[in-house]
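Structure tokens please, single chain.
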Amino acid sequence: MKKTYYIIVCSLFLLGSCTKSPEQKAKSILEKAIQAHGGQEAWDQLETLKFRKWTRLLLEDGSVESETDQLIELRMKPYLEGSISWVSDSIEHISSFNGSTMSYTMGGNSVKNQGFLQSKKKDFDAAYYVIAQPWKLLEDEGASLFYEGQKELASGQLAEIIRVNYGPENDVWWYYFDPVSYQMLGNEVQLKDHRSLVENDTMEQAGPFLLYGKRTSYRVNEQGEKLYVRAEYQYSDFEITLEK
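Here you go.
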């Protein structure tokens, strides 16, 4: 009887020790996703990442609000810096971050307004945040990760769900991963005034990395139901430099 009791207790202990918490499960999925997208070692060796990002914003009636074709260059070592450049109405815009200071020129003229420069720093940070997934989700110390199980997306595809919280008053993100290949299928974000869903329609092999190709952003309601297409994105012309 005593032997049976010890077997039961030990079995329960082993079962409990093998059960991952939502945080541990989320990190485990991210580690597999990082491997599926090129691996952590290759990402750690990344020196520069250059690519084009074409964006078309659409209004609810389907009409075009704006269209941009940007050249984005990120230099990862010895620290993050880079630039975003594009031409609008025949005027060249260059937004640059040197690791500590943001600068902006329009038609060769420097813009000094600090509020404007702060908004451009947010744009630069957002460009890096988007292209650096899924690696950045494990790099952000302020991010709280939770595994929310599986669900069927609007596309009909089954996905593993990871919720990412960045603290009170910040946006809440959900990232979707294929349960077999662990490739990132898209993400959803709840902002203060609306909710968006972005689907990764195609992916591009760029050196050792699997990065975005075509993406579509939808405005959705709180139930995740699509209301209309808000934006279309196309990533191309990747150039990558790794440490030798």
